[in-house]
Structures are given as C-alpha cells and as structure tokens.
Amino acid sequence: MRTTRLLTAASLLTLGACAPGISVRTALSPDASLRGLHTFRVQPTPQPKIAGAVSSTNDPMLVNSISNRALRADLAQEFAGLGYVASDSNPDFCVAYYASTNQKLDVTYWDYGYAWRPHWWSGWGHRWGRGWGGDWGIPSAPTVTQYTQGTVIVDVFDPKTKDLLWRGQGVAAVSDNEALYEQDLKKTVEAIVDKFPAASNRVALAQ
Question: How many C-beta atoms surround the C-beta of residue 170 within 10 A?
C-alpha cells in the first residue's frame, strides 16, 4: 500500500529505476499533504512564450500534435489507474506536463499559471532528508530550467492556491519513429505517475 508522508525537510527527492532503462526522480513539497485528493484535471498545453520552442510537428508540447494527444491521454489513464477521477470542474489537483524530443527542454517556455520554482524547490541534485526510498543525502544543486532531450516532467499543483505539490521526472528514449517514441513516452509517464500515491478512496471507487 502506498502511503504519503508529510515532510519536514526542505524537499524530497527520490531516484529509482521503475522500468527497464527509465530512472525517475520525484519531489514532494514539505508543506503538502496528498491525502484527501480525489479528482484531477490534466491541464491544456499553454502556448509557448518563445517562438521556436517546439522542434517538430510531432513535438509533445505542440498543441494537438499526435504525441501531445498521446501524452495527455497517458497521463489521464495513469492517474485514473491510481483511483483518481477526472473532473474538468473544481478538481482537487491539476496536472501540468513538460516533454521534449530532439532538443533540450526549457520549462520556462510554458506557463501553466503556477510557480515553477516555489521557495522549497532547489533543483534535483542530491537528495535532502529521508525519502520514500529511505536514503539520506546532502543539499541539492542550484535550480536549472533546461533539461536533456527526451525529458518528461509531471507536476501536480493546487488549482486554488497555485502551489506546487509534487513533481516527477523521467527521460524517454527519443526516436524519429513516431509510434516508437509514443510507446517510450507512455512507459516514461507510467513510471513517473507510478510514484504518485494512490487515491485513498481507490477501493471504494472500484466497487
């Protein structure tokens, strides 16, 4: 059974192999509790603030591209699989996403309406405090906004306060073959969301 821990450290960072070839990092706000969440909404992809932010017609951050639609569908499917219910009106949490193919991902190109760098976020780097894996680390490295090609980032934030609650990151294998890339993208999304706690009412919803 997955459990959610309210952290007292500055941030939680966990690194682990969740699927063959996929390493996932997660971070939970020290001010957040994920208990009591039941409904979610996958946010629409915002228009990039900078021209040239997308690299191709199948870029996952290009609105309504094939891979963008696949990414959104994968996210909805994975969170529903954890027992959460999709809701366009008044959801308990919102899901934002960032992904890249053949170029580095700069997350500052897209604005979902919440703060990408809250006070507790200092980048991935090393772990601080005891994470879900039970490891101790040292303070993390300075925040960066550019990530390697193939990076997928999933953010969960509070739609009312616009506070970032949880962040997950993985890297999908990049391929010019659209079907193959979409498969790897799906596996990466699955590995990331698998680290998010299951809904507390999962059993009730299944009945």
Answer: 26
